Hints:
This protein is mainly β. 5% of the residues lie in helices and 55% in strands. It starts with a strand and ends with a strand.
Amino acid sequence: MSTYQIDPAHSGAHFKIRHLMVANVRGEFTNVSGTVDFDPSNISASRIDASIDANSLMTGQPPRDAHLKGADFFDAEKHPTITFKSKSIAADGKDAYKAVGDFTFRGVTREVTLRVEGMAQEIKDPWGLLRRGASASTRIDRKEFGLVFNAPLEAGGVMLGDDVEITIDIEMTRKV
C-alpha cells in the first residue's frame, strides 16, 4: 500500500450542466486536495479521501462565478468544502476502478460511484518525487443535494438541467 498526496497545483475538478436546454456550460474548481491509498495488488484495500474548495470555482465569467458561489447554487460561504470519501473500491475492467463512497455537497451527503480510469504507472519526476495520475467521473442529480434553483423558459423547458457531470483529474505524489 502506498499513500499519495493529491497535488493541488496539478489537479482540478470539472462540472458540466445543460443550460437553456440548448448547450452545456462548464466550470472548474482549481483547488483539489486529499489523499489516495493505493494497493494495486489488493484494490479493495485502497481508499480515496478528496476535498474540493468550493471558493476556487471558475467558469471564465466573474459575475457568473459570484452567482454560482452564492446561496442559489454552491453556497460556498456556508459550505466551503465538497468532499468524497470512498467506502469501497473494486476493479472495473482493464486499468479502471469503481469507487463507491460518500459525496458531500452543500451539507448533504449521498452515496455516489466514481469511475476511475487512467491510473498512470508511478514515475519519478525531475525532483525525485514519485507520482501517479488518474481521472474519476460521476453524474449526480443536483436536486438530491438541495440545489433546486431554476427558471421556466417561455418556449417550454427550464433554464438548467438536473444532471451534473463531474470529472476530477488528479496528479499525486507518494508520501515517503
